[in-house]
Amino acid sequence: MIATTQPARKEKQTDMELSGEFLANIANQYGTPLYVYHAEKIKEQFKRLTSAFEGADATFFYACKALTNINVLRYIRSIGCNIDCSSSNEVLLALHAGFSPRQILYTSNNISFAELEEVASKGVNINIDSISNLGKFGKKFGATYPVGVRLRPNILAGGNLKISTGHDASKFGIPLESINEIHDVVKETGVVIRGLHIHTGSDIKDVDVFVKGVEILFNLTEQFPQLEFLDLGGGFKVSYKDGDHETDIAELGRRLTESQKAFQQKSGRRLSLWFEPGKFLVSEAGYFISSVNVIKETSSVTFVGLNTGLNHLIRPMFYDAWHTIVNISNPGGATRRYTITGNICETDTFATNREINEIREGDYLVFRNAGAYCFEMSSNYNSRYKPAEVLIEGGNHRMIRRADKFDDLLRNQVL
Ligand SMILES: *Cc1c(COP(=O)(O)O)cnc(C)c1O
Question: What is the mean pLDDT of residues 63-77?
Fold first, then answer.
């Protein structure tokens, strides 16, 4: 583990954590701010999923919007995981990374029909999330291109409202109360519904949410005679800090395997369970290393100013995400309370009143859980450069994206 004040969060993962010393060496070599990803940690998470569902018919599609570096996508393909895409460009990236169309799932929201046509031309698996697009799709493809439909199950789940997607005020999916309109489209166009999909949110700790979700889908199966799969989406919670609980994946596997078997016995139908984990696969594999530019003592607060900001890691400001922050340059230092802020001309607070080993200017501070929705949401705000990304694989490290240069800021501007 990195710091003495924050003992191993979960014993079973201790050996998978990169040490502070190792990360400091990487930072010395590549400079900061820097994103570092640990490939074997991704593999470990994937194995935890597959072994939890060993007795089930289950397929996993990595929700790649969490982190799309092409090297990460290739790695994920190499360990036998499929991929879920939320835009046509992510589909192109997945193909570029070597995934075959059958390994690719496209689950999108509020997209144009033109984009659906583009994705269909690649032959990938498609979930459709509006009656409007389902109708257009059916009219064009009839029975020739079976699809899944994303339903809105009217379940409230997830870490907070900004990351909840399955409740009755959510824009995502076809509301259950509109299910007859799906049948109307099927009748009119002959479109074949091969899957039912729900994704109720992110940071869902409670296994019951998934069990309830699949029960809702089981109850709908009689209406859809040509089903091949039930897709429960992603949203498994990971641990962000000491004492934090993640989704109990082993329990989830046990319960859903049971549900699947019971359903098969009762109905005589065998439906695959599909999952779209994003955060669960890559969150803990990521480390974001920053350097301390300025320490500002005020009468009430000690501000630490980093050489990064919400342009590189927006999650705390965007939806109150917690990132554990570790001073890898002073692991033995006495702890003090700090407010950790960025260098952007905008309030960009990463952490308030946080206990961390004594911080000095020049120290490296590492943000944990920096694999999912971190680099991926970064921007060039304040005309600052996006950071480099490094992949640790088999004990070796290599740069998988260089940091921006000045030319990158002008690249698409008409000069
Ligand atoms: C974002 C998303 C996921 C992944 O969610 P995580 O919380 O990262 O597991 C899965 N499916 C769909 C449709 C999504 O939009």
Answer: 98
